[in-house]
Amino acid sequence: MDVSELRKNAKVQLDGQPYVVVEFLFVKPGKGQGLYKCKLKNMITGAVLDRTWRSGEKFDPANVESRKMQYLFKDQNGFTFMDNESYEQVALADEIVGDDAAFLLDQISVDVLFYNDRPVGVTLPSHIVMTITECEPGVKGDTATNATKNAVVETGHKIQVPLFIREGDKVKIDTRTGAYVERINT
Amino acid sequence: MAAELGGLAWPARVQIWDAALAAVRGYFRDQGLREVSTPVRVPAVAVEPFIDPIAAPPGLLATSPELAMKRLLVRGSGPIFQIAHVFRRAEVGERHSEEFHLVEWYRLGADLDPLLADVEALVSRVFAATGSNGHVPKTWQRARFLEAVTATCGARLRGDEGPERLIAALPPALAAEAARALAATGEPDSPARTLLAWTAFFTAWSDMFLEPWLKGHEGTHLIDFPAPLAALAVTDPARPWLARRAECHVGGLEIANGYVELRDADEQRRRFATVNELRRVHRSPALPIDEDFLAELPGLPPCAGIALGLDRLIALAACRTRLADVSLALAGG
């Protein structure tokens, strides 16, 4: 695949191992080549390495199989997901789910990734809608500043939101950055 | 100056764009330039090694308004400016967006100095108009390309090096990377290979040495580029290994790129062909040559032109490092 397809969370095959892009930076000096600076995490060993690609280069997508599954529950075995067609269930350890746990709403549909039939990761939808369960009261009329306040969503994930957001509001969140995107009017 | 400041609230975004757009227009009106607006969909764009247009059948979305504005200059427009919407495929990052705004302007006379003075004046006008509490660059240095190379990484280059000597002059880590980029290119000493060598060198040097060095200065005009990196600029008649091209930086952020404009259609055609040869090696599609532009180019009056990234300037004025923090594009689409 062309390097312009690289993004945070892209899965890359490197030296016979599957990696996930955990940090991604695109820079392009002047009229030079684009540089795709990636921090990669080995999806099996968890080892992290840096790799920079230049525009015009290719990369191999990771040799992983993706299956649509639904999140069911968390217990001492980790996070359990169910295949929507076969009803087969798999448990993913906490360290495989990692920071994505903050976005696992009940029943949410995700892609679970398998490498040689072993679950190695999940891919969330890029944006999800969650309900604000806790936040400080809004400040009326204060829309001209860029001030934000702390808030908590239903999974317990903490985010920064604009001052006009209230408890019970539904907000769109970018799962790649964990950041607030916009309020959803219902 | 910190990314964690986050995005501006919507009313503040609208306010800052309104102030900046008015400041740009006010400045050029005061200077006697006329505002133009050329088509966004064009038959062909300037042929660049690593700038890819987005298709808009039967044409392309403009990657810059350069060719269209030059054809107006040929028709006697006199000095002109434009605030243009431009598009560059797959340029997505904190400081890049596939769609952005270029302020592009041309003055008659083959001299870069008035354009660099314009950049300095525009930066302070936009900072003032937007009520920025950021740091306005007060001192601007001129740095010659080859001297900046020596100052930052010790390599001494003449400017007319072939690819091998160029790469040998680099520190080992950089040399390996540049050599990797070169390996795919065919014919030794072909113009395409020389262009790729210089582009690979510039990319690696800029990322590892130039940008950190620029951060230690307020404003910098990088001038006297090596001739292989001339793009659409003339080469210096007295020193033909150098191009009369300038890049303007505020801290480590590039905001503008200007040329004393090439008016030799044969030379321009050769350069476009060289770039297309490089693109072929890189398996990027060759770009169509704008024959109407080349046919009219000999009629271009002596002039110099420059393009400034307005989104970046507004982000600077807002003390933000990400274009998304000030953009009027609706997020999360």
Automatic annotation (TrEMBL), chain A:
Classification via InterPro entries: Elong-fact-P_C, NA-bd_OB-fold, Rib_uL2_dom2, Transl_elong_fac_P/YeiP, Transl_elong_KOW-like, Transl_elong_P/YeiP_cen, Transl_elong_P/YeiP_CS, Transl_elongation_fac_P
MF annotations from Gene Ontology: translation elongation factor activity
Domain (Translation elongation factor P/YeiP central): residue spans on this chain: 66-120
Pfam family, one: Elong-fact-P_C
Pathway(s): Protein biosynthesis; polypeptide chain elongation
Main location: cytoplasm
Keyword Protein biosynthesis found: yes
Elongation factor P C-terminal domain boundaries: 128-183
Superkingdom: Bacteria
Alphabetized UniProt keyword annotations: Cytoplasm, Elongation factor, Protein biosynthesis
SUPFAM superfamilies: Nucleic acid-binding proteins, Translation proteins SH3-like domain
Keyword NADP: no
GO cellular component entries: cytosol
Compartment(s): Cytoplasm
Its biological purpose: Involved in peptide bond synthesis. Stimulates efficient translation and peptide-bond synthesis on native or reconstituted 70S ribosomes in vitro. Probably functions indirectly by altering the affinity of the ribosome for aminoacyl-tRNA, thus increasing their reactivity as acceptors for peptidyl transferase.
Family: Belongs to the elongation factor P family.
Protein name as it appears in the record: Elongation factor P
Taxonomic source organism: Nannocystis exedens
From TrEMBL, chain B:
Highest taxon of source: Bacteria
GO cellular component, one term: cytosol
Pfam families linked to this entry: tRNA-synt_2
Single GO molecular function: ATP binding
Keyword RNA-binding: no
PROSITE patterns linked: AA_TRNA_LIGASE_II
Annotated keywords: Aminoacyl-tRNA synthetase, ATP-binding, Ligase, Nucleotide-binding
GO biological process, one term: lysyl-tRNA aminoacylation
Domain Aminoacyl-transfer RNA synthetases class-II family profile span(s) in chain numbering: 16-316
InterPro entries per the UniProt record, alphabetical: Aa-tRNA-synt_II, aa-tRNA-synth_II, aa-tRNA-synth_II/BPL/LPL
PANTHER family linked: ELONGATION FACTOR P--(R)-BETA-LYSINE LIGASE, LYSYL-TRNA SYNTHETASE
Designated name of the protein: Lysyl-tRNA synthetase, class 2
Source organism per UniProt: Nannocystis exedens
